[in-house]
Amino acid sequence: MTCSLSTHVLDTAAGRPAGGVAVELRRDGSVLASEETDGDGRARLAEGLAPGLYTLAFAPPSPFFRRVTLEVELEDGHYHVPLLVSPYGCATYRGS
């Protein structure tokens, strides 16, 4: 079994994708991938991951939310984890 992970960051205050956002993927304290979102706000973080618990850390374009950290449990297959962020709030969900 293997997993893959991608993300998409949307600046909901500006109404557009957030390019240039630093995203880290960690497991057991080690950084497995470090990417910046592209001009469409997307980043493909990793392929061929083993199932298990991972941490995603975003540095979003918000004066309040300086770092958003999520713990995700991956099983077999592809996972897409978008982040919606503004100066007033943030949300995430499991995408497809």
What does this protein look like?
This protein has about 100 residues and is mainly β. It has a single domain (about 5-90), classed as Transthyretin/hydroxyisourate hydrolase domain (Immunoglobulin-like, Sandwich). It has no helices and nine strands. The protein has strands spanning about 5-10, 15, 20-25, 30-35, 40-50, 50-60, 70-75, 75-85, 90. Strands 1, 2, 5, 8 and 9 form a five-stranded mixed beta sheet that branches. A hairpin with a 4-residue loop joins strand 1 (about 5-10) and strand 2 (about 15). It is globular and about 40 Å long. The two termini are about 20 Å apart.
Mean pLDDT: 95
CATH class category name: Mainly Beta
Describe the global form.
globular
What class do helices, strands and sheet pairing give?
A: mainly beta
Give me the number of helical elements.
0
Kindly identify the CATH topology: Immunoglobulin-like
Low-confidence stretches: none
Domain module tally: 1
CATH architecture: Sandwich
> Strand share of the residues?
over 45%
For the record, what is the CATH homologous superfamily label?
Transthyretin/hydroxyisourate hydrolase domain
Overall strand count = 9
**Rounded Rg:** 13 Å
